[in-house]
Amino acid sequence: MPNKPPPKGWLWSAEAAEYLAVHVVTLYRWRRDGVGPKGKRHGRRAYRYKISDLDAWMNEDAPARAAA
Hints:
Blueprint (H helix, E strand, L loop, with lengths): L9 E3 H8 L3 H10 L6 E3 L3 E5 H8 L3 H5 L2
Antiparallel strand pairs: 1-3, 2-3
C-alpha cells in the first residue's frame, strides 16, 4: 500500500479486501480473472477501488458474484 492515503471515497487494495470481507489475495485473483469489482491502477503496482464501485459490485446479482 502506498504511504499516502487514497483520495476521498477510495480504498487501497488491502482496505478494499477488508471492506469486502475477503483476503487481499482473493481480490488480486478476482482482478486478474476479470470477475471482481472494478479497480484503478495507481502507479506501477498499487490499485485503488472506489467505494461506490465496491458497493455496486456487492449489490449485483448474487449468483454472478458466487461464480467469482
